[in-house]
Amino acid sequence: MTLPLIVYRSLRQHALSTLVTATSIALACGLLMTVWMVKDQSQRAFADSTTGFDAVLGARGSKLQLVLNSIFHLEASPGNLAPADYEAIRRHPAVKTAIPIAVGDNYQGWRIVGTIPQLFTVEYSKGKSYAIAEGGRQFDPTQREAVIGSLASQRLGLKLGDTFRPYHGINFDPNAQHEEVYTVTGVLSPTNTPADRVIWIPLQGVQTMGGHDPKMAGDVSAVLIQFRAPTAGIMLDVMYNKQGNRLTLAYPIGAVVADLFNKIGWMDKVLALVAYLVAVVAAGSVLASIYASMHARRRDIAILRALGARRRTVFGAIVAEAAAIGGLGAIAGYAVYAGLFLLVAGVIRAQTGVVLELGSMHPVLWAAPLGMAVLGALGGLVPALKAYRTPVAENLIPAS
Amino acid sequence: MLTITGLKKSFTSPEGGSTLIVDVPEFTLAAGEQRALRGESGSGKTTFLHLIAGILAADEGKIDLAGTNLSGLAEPARDRVRADKIGYIFQTFNLLQGYTVLENVVLGMSFGPRGSDRAKAKSLLERVGLGHRLDHYPRQLSTGQQQRVAVARALANGPALVLADEPTGNLDRRHGREALALIRDVCRENGAALLLVSHDEEVLAQFELKSDFTELNRAAPRPVAVQP
């Protein structure tokens, strides 16, 4: 009862500094958890976002650019494939599915991708297939019709039956609007994949859009591939990447994405370093706030000692108080984490369509708060030492 | 119960020299006895009480409290003896301002061997007339009431000895008389010996047993004789 009472009363007596210090701990803890969880989840989410395909075939160039362009609908296309190349891969005996896509247009910055209806028959994740929300239907490949990803529909306000005119290019230029008018025939149910950010129209729509080069009307930007067996990937990798020099096969997609994270691994380290530094600064703030109040506490410490409290009791009380501030901050850190995570996850979803889950578990979610409480307690060691050394007689005034 | 022999305590002055503050060759107090010590400010009374309470360590001499030689104990052991056997009432009460009346008393008990006993603390506070102020903070009490909390706290651990350092120094005459009567009554009821130091003649007059600390303490400054 003694120690908790002393700690509780001290926290109340120094409520403002407790609040400020616990808030700094909460920010540090929340930041630490957010950095870790966003890094971990985005790494896994991106690596898992293969949208059901094993590989991507595209023009000669970077595998990463090819994957970002055709799977995540980011970046520019590295170039086009001739119709014969698409036909060759489509007819290859080792290939189970080959879905062509064509990019190059947008609607108010949201990417338009031309494809064939078969894309929507592929399971984008194990056991999960694309579905069109009630009342809608798949686009007719011979008509100027569109199926819109859920996020794009929500953000653009495009609903079933609405019409729109695409803009040329992958970046929005209000002066580059095409003449063609497309009608929305369906909205995809949310998939939590990059497909949610895309406006899907027939392949021919992009190929023959006014202003596009008619000589390239049969070209595609990339081909999304499912193999009949994993060994086919290795075989085609040799064929296209090592023996050939015109095309690039990005296989396996997950490994290509993982390579991206390896390349930006230094950024993780910088973020983690910043989070660690913030944690150390927060622990320092515990030290500073308690140490600064030690002068005012001398009398209380002397009284406690005069009542029979041992030196180790007052030492323990200060360390426990510091740990309590760390603990309170760590608990509040969950709220900071939730807020920051949702903010970052929202940005990532808007930019990539990849969804990060707040409810996911990871050891950092208990290790970081525990670490902050321990750091807080360590921050209390110096003022606790000062309390330990507080002379009793000198601080029990007045003397007669 | 309390036997002191050859007690000496010096302090190092800022100039580096050593100044003898307490030099008491002999002093005794029997169990349950109530004794007052007369002494002016600066006579070393508080240092003397701090030595008996074990807050300060003696340079020389022996303090025997109920069979325990305090002078031979290390600080943690002196702390234990203080929590167990001594109640201390201060002139400025020294209540913990961030704690309620009840918590001040309970906290005082918690350092003793028997630990906190809220029921006993409440009963003591009721005895000193503060049963209706248990959840108040010291700043919400009058000075007389604060002194009564200090009395209850000093008695909470059932000490063998209560030390009172100018306990009425901050009270007006009426409250001073009431506080003194209360301290003496409560000590008597609890079988505790009382050693009180004061320079107030009205307080001293109420004690059958009293000594002049200036005579007791050979290191105390002597009054300068005024020439006619």
Notes on the structure:
The complex is a heterodimer of chains A (400) and B (228). Chain A has 400 residues and is α+β, with helices and mostly antiparallel strands. Chain A has two domains: 2-46 and 264-395, no CATH class; 51-251, no CATH class. Chain A has helices spanning 2-13, 15-48, 63-70, 83-91, 150-156, 203-207, 230-243, 253-263, 265-306, 311-352, 364-379, 381-388, 392-395; strands at 55-59, 95-107, 110-115, 123-125, 128-129, 145-148, 163-164, 167-168, 182-187, 199-202, 222-227, 247-250. Chain A is elongated. With 228 residues, chain B is an alpha/beta fold. Chain B has a single domain, classed as Rossmann fold (3-Layer(aba) Sandwich), CATH 3.40.50.300. Chain B has helices at residues 45-53, 75-85, 101-110, 118-127, 143-155, 173-190, 201-204, 213-216; strands spanning 2-12, 18-29, 34-38, 60-65, 68-69, 86-89, 161-165, 193-198, 209-212. In chain B, the strands form two sheets. A five-stranded parallel β-sheet of chain B has the order 6-7-8-3-9, sandwiched between helices. A four-stranded antiparallel β-sheet of chain B has the order 2-1-4-5, with helices on one face. The mean pLDDT of chain B is 90. The chains are: A alpha+beta (400), B alpha/beta (228). At the A-B interface, helix 1, helix 9 and helix 10 of A face helix 1, helix 2 and helix 3 of B.
Q: How many distinct beta strands of chain B?
A: 9
Q: Globular, elongated, flat, extended or rod-shaped: what is the shape of chain A?
A: elongated
Strand fraction of chain A: 5-15%
Radius of gyration of chain B: 18 Å
Report the sheet with the most strands of chain A, covering strand number, pairing sense and barrel closure: 10 strands, mixed
Order of helices and strands of chain B: EEEHEEHEHHHEHEHEH
Name given to the CATH architecture of chain B: 3-Layer(aba) Sandwich
* Number of helical segments with 4 or more residues of chain B: 8
Question: How many separate domains make up the residues of chain B?
Answer: 1
How many strands appear in the DSSP assignment of chain A?
12
* SS-based class of chain A: alpha+beta
Report the span from N to C terminus of chain B. Answer: 45 Å
